[in-house]
Structure formats: C-alpha cells, structure tokens
C-alpha cells in the first residue's frame, strides 16, 4: 500500500496512556454555561449587530468584530468548523496516491486530503507527531519505538477522518465535531454548500474543470472579513482604487443577487481592443460562497480567492488561477497569460493597500460603526447577517445553559 509522508496524530500518544483519575464531571448544563461564559465578551459583540434592521437604516458590525481575538476564536468554532469549506482544487489530488496538506490551517485544525491507490478521495485530521506512518486510507502502518507497549491495537489508531467531497474543480471538507467519513455524494455536498445558487454557477461555467495555471498567496495585515467586505461592496471602490480594471468594466451594469449562503455580483465588460483577447470577456461574474471563498469567472479565466484568518488582524489570501485549455497551445498564448496575471497582480496590490488602510481605521479609537451604501452593498450586508446567524447560536445556548444551571443549583440546595 502506498504511504503518504504523513506524521502521526498527537492524540495517539495521549490515547495510549492511562489518564489521571478525575473528579466527577459537572452536570451538562454547568459545562455548557461555563463554555458559553468563556465567550461572553464576544457574545456581547455579536449582539451589537442587528440583522433585522432594513439595509437603508442598518449600521455595520462594530469594530470589535475585526479586532478582538476572542471574537475570532468564536468565529473559528461557530463559522469555520461548521458546514462545508473549500480547501483546495481537484488538480491537487488528480491521480491515485496524490495528497495535499492543509496549509490553510483553520485555528488549531490541520488536515490532509489524499486519493488512495484505488482512486477514492479521503480527508483526515493530521497532527504531526513522532513520525508514525499512515496509508492513504488513514490506516496506521507503522508506529516507531513502541516495543513493550501493552494493549495496543494499531487498527484503533488510524487518522481521524473528515468528510470530503468535490463540486466542479473544488475540493470541499467538513470539520464538524460529530463528522465522520460517511459516503457523502458530491451532488449533496454541492447543494449544501451552494444551495439554490448551484444552478446559476454551473450555467456560468464555474463548475468546469479548467486547467490550473498557478497559485499565489498574500499575507495581508487585516482581519479576514475586511478582505471579504472589500470583495462584497458591489464595485463601490472599483473606480477609486482600480482605474485600469474600471476601464474594462461597465460599472453601470453591476447587479447583485443573494442566495442562502452565496452572493453573486455580475458586471458587463467594456469592448476589447481589436485583435486582442479580452481578459474579462463579455461579462464578469463574482461569486462569494460563505464564509470565505470567492470565485471569479471572466472571459477564458477563472480565479478563486480563499481568505484564511491568521489572527484577529492578519489573514492569508490564496489565489488559484484557471484558464480555458484552448489558450495553452500557441506561443502567443503564454504572453497573454503573463500579461493577464500581471494585470491581476496589480489589482491585488491595490486591494492589499486598501484593506490594510481599512484595518488601521477599524483599530482607531475614533471608529465605532459605519453605514452601508444601500444601492450597492447588499452582498456585504448579506454576509454580515449570515455571520450573525452562526454566531448568535451561542447566545441562545448561553441563555438556555444558564437557566439549566440555575435549576440544577436549586435542586442541589433542595437535596441538602
């Protein structure tokens, strides 16, 4: 069996040792209340945004959403470790025995996605430790220096599976705590990930397996949501920050559509110069898949942006570029590719400067909340409402757990 260069799970060592005796566990309600109390400051920040206020009257989330470390910890738990997440593209696991590790680590979660010798796709939690060796199906093949160990069954120490699926050229993973590697159909996963937007994206060429051209990564000194907000402003900033890009778009044609977990911005392109292949084609489509994945389809190109939080004021944005294979033949095509990537790089550098400036403003003591431009920032408001829905679950749990704890305390007093 082929093996991946995967290190063993750190949990394996802990599981092999008997733990210390522990006092009786507190009642479930008490545990829930304590967990919720740990997030109390973040809970208050969640409550400061009201999604029920109509967009023309709404204010944006408070600055703490973009600066507070506790708020990010809450996001990692309630947003990123729930539901399907884009983690890579199928070109990374095209052949049997291919694998990639989760360089886009989410908080304390590291993972590996691999295709076994039979062509089946898997994903596992991957915590490096002591060089144990695993098969691409997660089976423990070799554990080093364990002579003398008792009651050890290597079949009980395989890598912990993660749900994995694909939609079009994208690899999806799901990190829910209760998740196991069930046979999740790609269509089912795609529907859960994209909802009713899947049809629109499919008909606009997003699900086609275009050849992967290159990957670029940027470390940006801003909260991950700043990058997303910038993407979701309906082209508001484009004429002021991206002069060259704006000249290639008909901004008056900009439209925004919102779905369950997806928003789509569309814009017609300006006419191309004669004898030139238009980078933007006739229409550009920008799809945001909650919480942090962006798909841009324009002309023969598709690129994706994945915004990964590093801490409360920094993120990594991973760009993957795909191109219609008809443009990978002639020598002149290479010049076109280089020119297009250079144009894209210029836009990214402009956006980085913009996002880092916004972050500095958010950290200013003079800033509290802002307002939306109702005619263009519908997608941004939609994004904030989805975040609030995920994060406010904790508020409800906190209230219920607190009530349960109070009842249990009364029962204990009565018993004595």
Your description of this structure?
This protein is an alpha+beta fold. It is globular. The strands form 4 sheets. Strands 10-16-15-14-13-12-11 form a 7-stranded antiparallel beta sheet. A 3-stranded antiparallel beta sheet has the order 1-6-7, with no helix packed on it. 33% of the residues lie in helices and 24% in strands. Mean pLDDT is 82; it is low at 1-5, 7-25, 28-32 and 398-416. Helix 2 (28-38) crosses helix 12 (393-415). The longest helix has 32 residues, at 331-362. It has 12 helices and 16 strands. It has helices at residues 10-15, 28-38, 40-47, 69-80, 186-194, 198-203, 224-231, 238-241, 243-246, 331-362, 378-391, 393-415; strands at 3-4, 84-89, 99-101, 111-115, 121-125, 133-135, 140-142, 163-167, 170-174, 212-220, 249-258, 262-269, 283-289, 293-298, 301-311, 314-323.
